[in-house]
């Protein structure tokens, strides 16, 4: 009795501990999820109401079936136990035993009749007391099991409510929901297996106690075998057969329970797989919808960008036209200024050479007297010489488009005769270099191939892809040449040039005209294609499909009017125009510096005159 009660208390404590632990785990899980909800603001939301309803229905069906099966199993066990106890008690009541130490005593006559009645009363009282205790224990255990089952179902209800709350909170994350449900199902399985194992252990202990109590009774019956041996043996055989049947039925019931549990697990797994497949299908559908929306947004964005680039191209064209006009006006103005500057430069140069000659005479005559004064002015003179050389180089390279050959003006300071010798030496060196540079036939062919490749690349960048484009461009060059010749004939009647005159200044204008005519051709072609399909709207589906295809071609042609290569070419052209503008600014600053240098030279000349006067006075 004490062992059984102790085991029941231990089971209750373990069940309470497991319930508290699971409550803590659930509370911890909800708290963690609330923290995660505070931290994370944007999550993918998805709710499958049908899945939740199916799961609730399955769970309720399983719980109801478990209660009914438990009741049926308990009723069958109670009926079998009662049937087994009835013949056992009836057989015990037939016999009487009188024990004195270890010897059996049988009585005859009246004393023999009285003793078995007393013994029956004594034996029945002890045995019945044991049976009553056993029954009371069985009733208590039934009640405890019922209470445990009720507690278990209450726990299940409480946990189901918590699960519903957790599912409502965490319905955003389907994958976490499925994992959480699996973990709980596994926990319930483990919990049920623990209960089954404990009930088996309790039943085995009770069975052992009953067997130990019944061993003594069986020994007493074995002693009574002398009195009536044959019916007692038959009854024992019947009892053994009944016990075997009970064991077999118990084993069959256990096997049936295991099979049913396996079937339930398989059904649950199948349902979970179906749910996962449905969720995957829904997720794929949502992904496809999301991708379609993204593609639509990208198409809208691309159309906006195309319109934006068209506007930018138009702005660039306008800016280029304004730059051209400004450049032409500036060029007309700068020609006069440049001619005046060249004349001034030649005068300054002549004066500077004369000054150098005079300085040489002064150095030869007054080298000792005025060495210190000349050393002071020599550094300034060298600076002005370098500035003049740089200005001369800019004028030769940028205006006359010729190479500039530097002369050693330092040697002019030392000796007048060295000027003529250095110039002749430079000319001889140039002649010798030209003689040494002998060109072979292979080099000429390679140069021709390189030039052809360069021409092809230049034509591609300009937008000349076909022979028709090339013919159009050449026609524009010849037309421009004819217009230029007509202008020159009006201004200069003596001009007799029959070839194609090349001016690098007007090439950009010709290329711009070429782009304008290409755009006109494309627009005319597109307009012709549109007029063909204006009157074919109400014909048939095939014609409508063809019209859509041709509209696509129309938009492709519109995009090809200004391809990406042309946009890059205009951008690079803009960069070079900006650089050219900066060079013009630098040229203007150089011209201003030249005027300043003229003033300084005049001041130096005045100083030299003063020096001469002072020397003459001495």
Automatic annotation (TrEMBL):
GO CC aspect terms: axonemal dynein complex
Domain Dynein regulatory complex protein 1 C-terminal: 553-606
Residues covered by region (Disordered): 1-32
GO biological process: axonemal dynein complex assembly; cilium-dependent cell motility; regulation of cilium movement
Keyword annotations from UniProtKB, A to Z: Coiled coil
Coiled coil: 434-461
InterPro entries: DRC1/DRC2, DRC1_C
Compositional bias (Polar residues): 1-19
Biased composition (Basic and acidic residues): 20-32
PANTHER family for this protein: DYNEIN REGULATORY COMPLEX PROTEIN 1 (PTHR21625:SF1), NYD-SP28 PROTEIN (PTHR21625)
The name this protein goes by in its record: Dynein regulatory complex protein 1 C-terminal domain-containing protein
Provenance organism: Plasmodium ovale
């Amino acid at each position: 009795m004490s062992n059984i009660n102790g085991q029941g208390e231990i089971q209750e404590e373990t069940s309470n501990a497991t319930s508290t632990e699971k409550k803590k785990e659930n509370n911890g899980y909800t708290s963690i999820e609330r923290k995660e909800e505070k931290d994370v603001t944007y999550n993918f939301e998805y709710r499958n109401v049908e899945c939740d309803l199916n799961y609730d229905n399955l769970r309720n069906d399983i719980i109801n079936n478990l209660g009914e099966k438990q009741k049926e199993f308990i009723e069958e066990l109670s009926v079998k136990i009662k049937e087994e106890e009835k013949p056992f008690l009836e057989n015990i009541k037939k016999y009487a035993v009188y024990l004195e130490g270890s010897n059996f005593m049988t009585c005859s006559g009246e004393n023999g009749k009285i003793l078995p009645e007393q013994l029956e009363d004594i034996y029945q009282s002890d045995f019945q007391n044991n049976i009553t205790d056993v029954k009371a224990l069985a009733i208590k255990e039934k009640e405890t099991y019922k209470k445990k089952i009720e507690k278990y179902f209450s726990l299940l209800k409480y946990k189901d409510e918590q699960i519903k709350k957790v599912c409502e909170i965490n319905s955003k994350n389907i994958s976490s929901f499925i994992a959480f449900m699996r973990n709980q199902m596994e926990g319930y399985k483990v919990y049920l297996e623990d209960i089954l194992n404990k009930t088996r252990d309790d039943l085995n202990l009770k069975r052992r106690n009953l067997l130990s109590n019944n061993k003594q009774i069986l020994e007493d019956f074995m002693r009574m075998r002398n009195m009536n041996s044959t019916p007692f043996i038959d009854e024992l055989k019947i009892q053994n057969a009944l016990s075997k049947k009970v064991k077999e039925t118990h084993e069959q019931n256990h096997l049936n329970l295991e099979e049913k549990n396996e079937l339930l697990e398989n059904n649950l797994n199948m349902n979970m797989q179906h749910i996962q497949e449905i969720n995957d299908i829904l997720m794929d559908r949502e992904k496809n919808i999301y991708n379609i929306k993204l593609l639509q947004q990208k198409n809208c964005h691309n159309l906006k960008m195309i319109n934006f680039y068209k506007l930018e191209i138009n702005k660039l064209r306008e800016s280029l036209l304004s730059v051209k006009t400004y450049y032409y006006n500036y060029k007309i103005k700068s020609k006069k200024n440049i001619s005046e500057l060249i004349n001034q430069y030649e005068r300054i140069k002549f004066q500077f050479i004369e000054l150098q000659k005079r300085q040489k005479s002064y150095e030869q005559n007054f080298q000792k007297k005025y060495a210190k004064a000349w050393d002071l002015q020599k550094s300034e003179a060298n600076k002005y010489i370098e500035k003049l050389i740089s200005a001369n180089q800019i004028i030769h390279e940028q205006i006359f488009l010729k190479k500039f050959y530097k002369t050693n003006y330092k040697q002019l300071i030392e000796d007048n005769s060295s000027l003529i010798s250095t110039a002749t030496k430079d000319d001889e060196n140039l002649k010798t270099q030209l003689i040494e540079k002998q060109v072979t036939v292979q080099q000429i062919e390679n140069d021709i191939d390189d030039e052809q490749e360069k021409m092809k690349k230049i034509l591609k960048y300009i937008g000349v892809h076909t022979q028709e484009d090339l013919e159009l461009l050449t026609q524009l060059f010849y037309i421009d040449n004819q217009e230029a010749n007509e202008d020159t004939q009006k201004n200069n009647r003596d001009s007799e040039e029959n070839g194609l005159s090349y001016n690098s200044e007007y090439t950009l204008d010709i290329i711009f005209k070429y782009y304008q005519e290409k755009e006109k051709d494309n627009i005319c072609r597109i307009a012709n294609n549109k007029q063909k399909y204006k009157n074919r709207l109400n014909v048939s589906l095939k014609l409508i499909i063809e019209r859509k295809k041709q509209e696509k071609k129309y938009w492709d042609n519109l995009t090809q009017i200004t391809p990406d290569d042309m946009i890059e070419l205009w951008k690079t052209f803009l960069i070079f125009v900006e650089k050219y503008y900066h060079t013009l600014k630098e040229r203007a600053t150089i011209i201003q510096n030249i005027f300043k240098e003229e003033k300084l030279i005049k001041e130096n000349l005045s100083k030299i005159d003063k020096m001469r006067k002072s020397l003459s006075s001495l």
